[in-house]
Amino acid sequence: MEIIFLFLCLASVVLILAVGLFAFKRRSNDDAENLPPGSLGWPVVGETLEFLFGNPEKFVFHRMKKYSPDIFKTKILGEKTVVICGRNGHKFLFSNEQKLFTAFRPHSMQKLFRSYQATAAAPIQISREAESKILRSPGFLKPEALVRYLGEMDSITQQQMKTYWEGRDEVKVFPLAKTLTLSLACRFFLGTNDPERIARLVSNFDDITLGMHSIPVNFPGTIFYRASRAADAIRKELKTIIAEKKAAIATGTPTQDILSYMIVVTDPSGKHMPEAEIADKIMGLLVAGYSTVATAMTFFMKYVGERPDIYAKVLAEQKEVSSAKEEGKLLDWDDIQKMKYSWNVLYEVMRLTPPLQGTFREALTDFTYAGYTIPRGWKVYWTVSTTNKNSEYFKDAERFEPSRYEDEKAFPPFTFMPFGGGPRMCPGKEYARLAVLTFVHNVVKRFKWELVSSNEKIIGDMMPTPEKGFPIRLLPH
Asked: Which Pfam families match (predicted)?
């Protein structure tokens, strides 16, 4: 027994020395390369656990204070990463897209949305920039194209209000907001007249949302395992819809949705996208048009529910919109343009609770920033939070105050960027604006509300999630 104990002790010492030498060597190499201050954390996992489960915003603020307010290094989601912070960091990043940086998706996202690479015999290789052009080139997300869908957005929203909201004393906002936004996304992206068909898979989309920024360990019980199973279920349903859409196109049925465009688009050699690839791309669009929009709707209900004075102003604006319309007419583009105060309220919602904490890039070449060198291939993490709550730019930064947006020069450029910036600004910005304002118009006209709990815990990593779904009491006007 003593020999075994001695062996275990020696093995432990050797392991500790090995880890110490590994860390020392790594620190020495880092110093030699003039990398930014910071820590790469533990071997293999780096600082991923603290980043994901300790709140990404707190993770960033703590290291800005400890290392540098401009830039620091870390290792998260399996990648050596620098976090570029503040207004100057935003400007530097968005001014150098495709010069110094390109888009990067964490490995968990790559595995969830890139299954066609393993299953398709000869997939069309479309770059991430080309994927964005799929949305931009036919103008699907431009205001003039979205106008066609605004009436349907209003109609779907009204129907969901009647089905899930009216006649109830209490509802949970977050699940209902997700059902609504998924129904809207299905109608817009898939062109389906049965949006509830995909809305029944809400729980699967929730699992994917959690799995997109997770450790890609695929065994039962893990977040990524559940996300993978959910992706398979959604992909199966989407392939059925794609087959139906192809049949409709073959008969000459007119279509004007993104799914139809993906089906008919070809590469320079005339090849069409494989169905598996189309399914993955559509699934990515549905996720993007689902969780972030639902989050904005939910936290609108929270912040406005806490401020009767703001609720009164939003209600007055929406009543003015309605009074100028004929009875029974659906919302149109002119109506949306009148909702200036309501949109300022939503800006403030997104400033205090960003629907998405941040995104990743990859360094295309070695570059220097703030006196430090970042090697080619390292990842760059950008987050809105390094300026959103900075009192240097926003007076009383913790206070919910929509009037601050009435003066467009009230804060400097590159300080408030809820949809990103530069060439990769979110192409769905206008779609999100229409969807959320349509929700606001319908909910404030029907209800007053009060919060069941003003201190509900917000969980989630990259996307904020109310732990109990954010229950509210509905009150008549």
From this structure: p450
